[in-house]
Amino acid sequence: MNNKTKYISLLRGINVGGKRRILMADLKDLYSNLGFSNCISYIQSGNVIFEHSEQSTSELANKIEDAVKKEYGFDVPVIVMRTDALKEAIQTNPYTETKPIESICLTFLNQKPEADLVDKISNLNFSPDEFQIRNQNVFIFCTGPYHKTKLSNQFFESKLKVRSTTRNWKTVLKLLELSE
What is the pLDDT, as a whole number, of residue 180? Predict the structure, then answer.
């Protein structure tokens, strides 16, 4: 019997513009050296699915961040979630029925933000772009390219006092497919 849990980790800001380069094969080796098994990477932006004995997602994120810092010498924020959390996020996306998939992104937060901070930004207008915060996720609809929206990781981190990383909807769906 397999007593391991399946997790998805998202590393923020690696292999962007030639900076903070990590080959995915090397990243998978790093994960294996941490005792993770059945590691699968997806595209070059630091998405890794793995299995490990039951542990808190924040402990796993810290473990990966520490290993990357030790191996590569730079800090990389890491968000880790269980596959059921990703499945739940996909099921609760408010935009999939009404907006084109190419215009949807999901910002993953490392923890549920405080309600008063969510309330402070929920009514801000970034029209034509939109966002909705649900649990540890920010669902974003962007009319243009994501890198041009004001609804960036930096915006949500500063306003919600959490860490974040964002993926387009096609990547989110592929991560779930690969994890199953």
Answer: 87
